[in-house]
Amino acid sequence: MEASLAADFLGIQMKNPLVVASGILGTSASVMERCAREGAGAVTSKSAGPEPRTGHANPVTLAWNGGVINAIGLTNPGCREEVPLLRETHRRLRALGLPLFASLFAPSVEAFGEVARVIAEAEPDLIEVNISCPNVGSEFGTPFSATAKSAAEVTAVVRKAVKLPISIKLAPNVPEIGRIAQAVVSEGADAVTAINTVPAMLIDAYAGKPVLKNATGGLSGAAIKPVALKAVWEIAQMVSVPIIGTGGISCGLDAAEMIMAGATLVGVGSAVALEGPAVFSRINRELEAFMTQEGYPDLASMRGKALPQK
């Protein structure tokens, strides 16, 4: 008997646990629909903020050792311009039976609430609150994900602003990510997304300068999978809300490991950028084959397998 990939996420019934991570092809309704048709279980839009942003000057992204380093700089049309895109995307995904997650960011605690209210007009199934982008420190200062206090403050403001489910996207480069997860859940987060990209840089030895125009950026892809697994594993021991485990997922075994670490859903990002949307159907096939071979009838029977046994 084949294993079931069906996932229940906050009462949303999903065909499989794979989610298009924010920032990956989430810029048009047609592209997000294509990801859905290629096997994604849910789609996350690119982060939108209070005002339009052109982002950083090129070069902003580079494929590196099976991953990607980027400093795109939260390019977006602004939340008000984003709403029509989200509505059209949601209409298309609804016809396919898939949920839409809408990502947002802001430069201040108060602005997070304002942006959330605007994005909520599109009625996405979930709002993902990006408090952890590593590429805009020079403009926004220390990310709100850096401390439990600041992360909780943002969560409280967004929770007050909207009634939709919210997930807070956390950063890996913090001392106690589990404690930060606890803090956001205590202020009303329905889920946690972990992790964002890892702060990094590349230097061109011949030119004697950083490769990215912004100097530093965020590393994603295979290199960060162990970091992401540890973060999800720690969070799963501290909170009981669902976790969207993201970072370095490129095959079915990667997805299985993330679920065993405690994730309910699995975000896929760099693999989509490197391989295209067809990566979702491949990962689903590999995950189903692994589960069938190892005797896991469904995702719930595998979830948290690697956590300490109580």
Tell me about this structure.
By secondary structure, this protein is an alpha/beta fold. The protein has a single domain, classed as TIM Barrel. The protein has 10 helices and 16 strands. It has an 8-stranded parallel β-barrel, surrounded by 7 helices. The chain has a 4-stranded antiparallel β-sheet with strand order 5-6-14-11. The radius of gyration is 18 Å and the shape is globular. About 2% of the residues have low confidence.
Properties at a glance:
globular, eight-stranded parallel β-barrel, TIM Barrel, 10 helices, 310 residues
CATH homology-level superfamily: Aldolase class I
Shape: globular
CATH class identity: Alpha Beta
Using only C-alpha atoms, the radius of gyration works out to: 18 Å
Q: Segments where pLDDT lies below 50 for 5+ residues?
A: 135-139
Query: Mind telling me which CATH architecture this is?
Result: Alpha-Beta Barrel
The biggest beta sheet is recorded as: 8 strands, parallel, barrel
Q: Please, what is the average pLDDT?
A: 92
Strand order of the largest sheet: 3-4-7-8-9-10-15-16
By secondary-structure content and strand pairing, the structural class works out as alpha/beta
Number of self-contained structural domains? 1
Count of individual helical segments:
10
Order of helices and strands: EEEHEEEHEHEHHEHEEEEEHEHEHH
Give the helix proportion (percent range): 25-40%
Number of strands: 16
Give a summary of the structure in a few sentences.
With about 300 residues, this protein is an alpha/beta fold.
